């Protein structure tokens, strides 16, 4: 039959387990000035309570759990610090009648409560607060088999809840410990526990997760025992009944270092005792340290490990008292019996700052709940702060100055201040107010209070370091003048050049001969000599100039130049023109020289004339005395560059008698030859004539040789013209008559001329087919003829396949072996129609990669490489027109698709990405204003467009858009003018509007650009990708702070894929940080490698390039080479005052300017 337990069990002070994990460093609390104060209102519960359990959350919020009245449900309250009042934690009344409550807070701040549910057979119940609702932890119907009493709840550092209780399901109350594994409550092995009666159960979890249980053993002379679970069974800590006397009100806690502490009421004296276990149990301080008998004893450990106990002082009206161990003795925290009246039962907790709290049933408030804390006095706020000096004057490099801050009121609680300087390059200030002068200028020193942010300032003026004068020099040191003649100036130079005081005075030793004014102007008075002396104000340094004044001045009457005419060659040798001043005994024969056109010829102070460029210039000499002049006419002839050869294109020509004329183009070499004039002739004008521009007109069937002769050197070249009696149709045009149409599988083959380095080769066979109502002309290249020609031409040959066709699709077809040969010879293939062209380096086709994808077993000769230019379909055109309407741009040229494929049998591999920029051109239709062309664009499959680097040039009277891209796609040309309203008067107006029109940069909305605003790293990456015309991809995430859902994810991944960015060492990209100038320059330098701009410049000395900038030392080591590359290429320059400003944020205007300049230097726009 179950034995009933003493009612004293129900008055047990449920201990706090929070102290087993709140181990942050304790703050220093001034106990001398602290006192016990109410937390909120006293007696805040609705009804009287008979027990309470107190816990403090990691954020410092106090929680208290209790049943209101003897039979009420469990209520948990928390203190709202903002409102300074208690409020419900979750819903009120968790369950039915309860007697035993234990509250604990998990490390993540989640409150847990364990209690005996008397409406469910007295079973143990554990619940936690999930948001605003309490929910069961484990089984909703209770976690014990039968009646559970003396519940003790604890939570391990990893957040795992544990509960201990007396299980009354058998003949005796047996100690039971359970652990929640996330799904179920698991019972610890009971081996080690004896059947019998126990009371005052107390549970704690060590830092390593070991559970400890303390209990009062009624079957062993009511002695106390502590046990721990060793992983297999329960074992005693020390020995059973180690207290040596009957005890009660047990409480166990585990310190940070794993040391168990145990508090209990001495059954003999009835006083408090605390013990700890090292190798054996020992008393902490003195035994029976409380002043009188105690009840409701509770133990807690402060974050620093100091043990505290709270208890009811039975001889002091049962009021609350808290004591702590100071390392030698137990001392009272505050005053003894600090509660207004009886405070039984009492629960103790300590927050992370080391402040003790107690909760109790307050007799003074009808036994309702009251919580008190031992708090420092109310702080006195700072109202003002002043500095002892409003101004201060120091000298750069000189002694420091000191400022003293006075905080008001003088009894302000927090008088801490911080110091700062508005300009640390001028003056710095340390934490004590000592000001150190650095360089000349002004700085504001500001002191700021930690409490309230009150400020005071002192204006500091730093004077330049005094640099003493070391010497002074006069120029000239001798001077010859004529009495009554012109004055002359003597110049004084003070050393060193940065001397602080350069003031000087002048004097003459004989003012009757010569005087000198304050600026060094010497005026001759009479014949004789005088010494002109200059004296520095600083140091009295002197220098002299000996002046001789001649008695009579012989005036200049004329000057003559020899020769009066001069003929030179640009880039050739210089020549000297001699000036003769008359009369020969003139007193002052000084002259000056000048050139009327220094771009043609320059002249130095001695009359040496240096030719610069073709043209004429007049060299003039002017006498100082009288301003007499003479001239010499200089003619600079252009450097003669001789003609070495001339080439005709095409070298053969087939025309039809009476048909259209054709043009033969003569190219004179070298391209900078001085005289490129040529004359034309026909060997048989009855067959074909040629005019002065190379236009050949067919007359009758036959052959004729067209010859061009250079005027310089008589170099010749010929083109063989064959005139046929009938005019053949153009390749690919309809050959049928009438109104019907036919769709043959293939048209008859036609021979097509190709050109290798301008030399004709009949190596192309063209066939035209109709597929899906679209004509397709394929030009297949004869492998042997091409190989023979390439062997003759050697490296870097250019193979041009020009085809006049009306077909919608033109395909140049090569074999894989041809491409391999071209690749080895670094050849270039050009597919050319009258409206578009495609220039492709053979290496970019990458025949090895294509072969690998098709299957390495086949012969390269069996792979067909098809290079295609095709007019876009009607569907694509319509999509583009829809985008134009929405994007407010105008389409000004037809849309073409450029593709490269490798074909083997039924397998096709598309080459869509290149390692270098590949060029294609689209002709601008006649009549289009060239000033209304913005850029070429890539047309994506959905009709949207994006910028592709584009240059517009004029060739033979036709404008072409030359586009360079790293990918194949569909291309067009648009007119898209933009003008942001807020850059109208900005220095970067042209660059901003150009980049905006090209769709490289975006505005901020409402027609604005915000040119001076900083730009983020993500925005800069997006601009780089758009500027380079790179297609965005969705590659694998490379940076842990860039999510796939972020707008910039694709541009960041693309920039990484093209090696434009690398991120930070911690694996982040920091996309929303403002980008600095050195970060931007480093990315630009990487892009220079992609565009080939880096290869155009020789290796340079990085340190020398940076040395010219005053702040070069601020450049990070990792950024130096990139910045040097940008400087060498002329992409970037310093900011004002010769600064690089590497760590400054780069502005949107600077980005627009730098990107434009980078693309221009790369010849991409």
Automatic annotation (TrEMBL):
SLH domain span: 975-1034, 1035-1098, 1106-1165
Pfam families attached to this UniProt entry: Big_2, SLH
Highest taxon, organism lineage: Bacteria
SMART domains: BID_2
InterPro entries, per database record: Big_2 (IPR003343), Cell_Envelope_Struct_Comp (IPR051465), Invasin/intimin_cell_adhesion (IPR008964), SLH_dom (IPR001119)
Signal peptide positions on this chain: 1-22
Keywords of the record: Signal
Protein name: SLH domain-containing protein
Source organism of the structure: Paenibacillus ferrarius
């Amino acid at each position: 039959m179950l034995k009933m337990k003493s009612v004293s069990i129900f008055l047990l002070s449920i201990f706090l387990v929070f102290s087993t994990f709140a181990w942050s460093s304790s703050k220093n609390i001034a106990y001398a000035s602290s006192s016990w104060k109410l937390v909120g209102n006293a007696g805040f519960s609705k009804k009287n309570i008979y027990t309470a359990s107190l816990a403090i959350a990691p954020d410092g919020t106090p929680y208290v759990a209790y049943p209101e009245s003897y039979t009420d449900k469990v209520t948990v309250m928390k203190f709202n610090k903002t409102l300074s009042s208690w409020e419900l934690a979750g819903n009120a009344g968790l369950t039915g009648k309860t007697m035993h409550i234990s509250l604990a807070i998990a490390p993540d701040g989640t409150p847990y409560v364990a209690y005996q549910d008397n409406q469910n057979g007295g079973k143990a119940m554990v619940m936690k607060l999930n948001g605003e609702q309490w929910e069961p932890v484990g089984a909703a119907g209770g976690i014990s088999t039968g009646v559970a009493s003396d519940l003790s709840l604890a939570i391990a550092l990893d957040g795992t809840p544990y509960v201990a209780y007396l299980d009354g399901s058998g003949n005796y109350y047996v100690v039971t410990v359970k652990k929640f594994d996330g799904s179920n409550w698991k019972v610890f092995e009971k081996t080690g526990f004896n059947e019998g009666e126990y009371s005052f159960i107390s549970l704690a979890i060590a830092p390593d997760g070991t559970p400890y249980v303390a209990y009062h053993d009624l079957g062993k002379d009511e002695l106390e025992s502590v046990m721990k679970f060793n992983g297999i069974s329960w074992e005693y800590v020390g020995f059973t009944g180690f207290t040596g006397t009957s005890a009660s009100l047990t409480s166990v806690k585990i310190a940070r270092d794993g040391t168990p502490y145990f508090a209990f009421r001495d059954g003999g004296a009835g006083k408090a005792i605390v013990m700890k276990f090292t190798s054996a149990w020992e008393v902490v301080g003195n035994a029976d340290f409380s002043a009188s008998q105690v009840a409701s004893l509770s133990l807690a450990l402060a974050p620093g490990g100091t043990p505290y106990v709270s208890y009811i002082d039975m001889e002091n009206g049962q009021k609350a008292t808290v004591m702590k161990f100071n390392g030698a003795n137990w001392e009272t925290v505050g005053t003894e019996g600090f509660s207004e009246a009886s405070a039984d039962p009492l629960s103790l907790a300590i927050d992370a700052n080391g402040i003790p709290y107690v909760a109790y049933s307050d007799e003074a408030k009808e036994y309702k709940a009251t919580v008190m804390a031992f708090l420092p006095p109310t702080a006195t706020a700072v109202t003002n702060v002043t500095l002892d000096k409003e101004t201060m004057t120091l000298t750069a490099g000189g002694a420091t100055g000191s400022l003293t801050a006075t905080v008001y009121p003088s009894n302000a609680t927090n008088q801490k201040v911080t110091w700062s300087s508005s300009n640390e390059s001028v003056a710095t200030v340390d934490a004590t107010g000592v000001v150190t002068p650095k360089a000349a200028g002004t700085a504001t020193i500001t002191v700021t209070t930690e409490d309230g942010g009150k400020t005071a300032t002192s204006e500091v003026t730093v004077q330049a370091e005094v640099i003493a004068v070391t010497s002074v020099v006069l120029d000239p040191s001798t001077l010859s003048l004529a009495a009554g003649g012109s004055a002359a100036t003597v110049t004084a130079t003070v050393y060193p050049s940065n001397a602080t005081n350069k003031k000087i005075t002048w004097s003459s030793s004989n003012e009757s001969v010569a005087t000198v004014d304050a600026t060094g102007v010497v005026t001759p008075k009479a014949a004789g000599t005088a010494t002109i002396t200059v004296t520095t104000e600083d140091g009295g340094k002197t220098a002299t100039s000996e002046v001789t004044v001649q008695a009579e001045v012989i005036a200049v009457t004329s000057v003559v130049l020899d020769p009066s005419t001069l003929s030179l060659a640009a880039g050739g040798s210089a020549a000297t023109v001699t000036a003769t001043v008359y009369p020969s005994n003139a007193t002052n024969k000084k002259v000056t020289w000048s050139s009327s056109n220094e771009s043609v010829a320059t002249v130095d102070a001695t009359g040496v004339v240096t030719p610069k460029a073709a043209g004429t210039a007049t060299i003039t000499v002017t006498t100082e005395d009288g301003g007499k002049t003479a001239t010499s006419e200089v003619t600079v002839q252009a450097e003669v560059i001789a003609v070495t050869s001339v080439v005709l294109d095409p070298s053969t020509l087939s025309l039809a008698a009476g048909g259209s004329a054709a043009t033969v183009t003569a190219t004179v070499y070298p391209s900078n030859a001085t005289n490129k004039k040529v004359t034309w002739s026909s060997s048989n004008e009855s067959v074909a004539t040629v005019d002065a521009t190379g236009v050949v007109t067919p007359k009758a069937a036959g052959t004729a040789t067209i010859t061009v002769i250079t005027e310089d050197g008589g170099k010749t070249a010929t083109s063989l013209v064959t005139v046929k009696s009938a005019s053949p149709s153009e390749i690919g045009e309809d050959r049928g008559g009438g109104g019907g149409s036919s769709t043959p599988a293939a048209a008859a083959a036609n021979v097509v001329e190709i050109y290798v380095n301008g030399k004709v080769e009949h190596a192309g066979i063209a066939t035209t087919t109709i597929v899906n109502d679209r004509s397709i002309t394929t030009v297949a290249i004869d492998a042997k003829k091409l190989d023979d020609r390439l062997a003759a031409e050697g490296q870097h040959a250019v193979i041009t396949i020009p085809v006049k066709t009306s077909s919608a699709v033109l395909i140049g077809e090569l074999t894989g072996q041809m491409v391999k040969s071209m690749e080895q010879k670094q050849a270039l293939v050009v597919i050319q129609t009258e409206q578009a062209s495609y220039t492709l380096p053979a290496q970019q086709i990458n025949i090895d990669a294509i072969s690998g994808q098709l299957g390495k077993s086949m012969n390269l000769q069996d792979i067909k490489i098809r290079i295609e230019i095709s007019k876009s379909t009607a569907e694509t055109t319509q999509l583009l027109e829809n985008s134009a309407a929405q994007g407010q741009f105008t389409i000004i040229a037809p849309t073409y698709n450029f593709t490269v494929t490798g074909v083997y049998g039924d397998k096709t591999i598309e080459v869509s990405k290149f390692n270098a920029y590949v060029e294609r051109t689209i002709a601008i239709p006649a009549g289009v204003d060239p000033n209304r062309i913005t850029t070429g664009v890539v047309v994506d499959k959905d009709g949207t467009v994006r910028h592709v680097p584009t240059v517009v040039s004029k060739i033979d009277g036709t404008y072409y858009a030359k586009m360079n891209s790293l990918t194949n796609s569909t291309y067009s040309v648009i007119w898209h003018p933009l003008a942001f309203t807020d850059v109208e008067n900005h220095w970067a107006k042209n660059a901003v509007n150009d980049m905006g029109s090209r769709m490289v940069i975006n505005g901020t909305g409402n027609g604005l650009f915000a040119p001076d605003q900083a730009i983020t790293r993500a925005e800069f990456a997006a601009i780089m990708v758009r500027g380079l015309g790179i297609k965005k991809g969705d590659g694998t995430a490379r940076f842990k702070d860039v999510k796939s859902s972020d707008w910039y994810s694709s541009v960041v991944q693309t920039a990484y894929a093209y090696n434009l960015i690398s991120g930070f060492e911690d694996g982040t990209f920091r996309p929303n940080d403002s980008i600095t100038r050195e970060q931007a320059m480093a990315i630009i330098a990487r892009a220079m490698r992609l565009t080939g701009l880096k290869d155009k410049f020789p290796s340079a000395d990085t340190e020398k390039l940076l040395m010219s900038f005053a702040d070069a030392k601020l450049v990070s080591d990792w950024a130096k080479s990139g910045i040097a590359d940008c400087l060498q290429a002329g992409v970037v320059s310093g900011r004002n005052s010769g600064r690089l400003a590497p760590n400054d944020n780069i502005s949107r205007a600077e980005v627009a300017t730098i990107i434009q300049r980078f693309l221009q230097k790369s010849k991409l726009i």
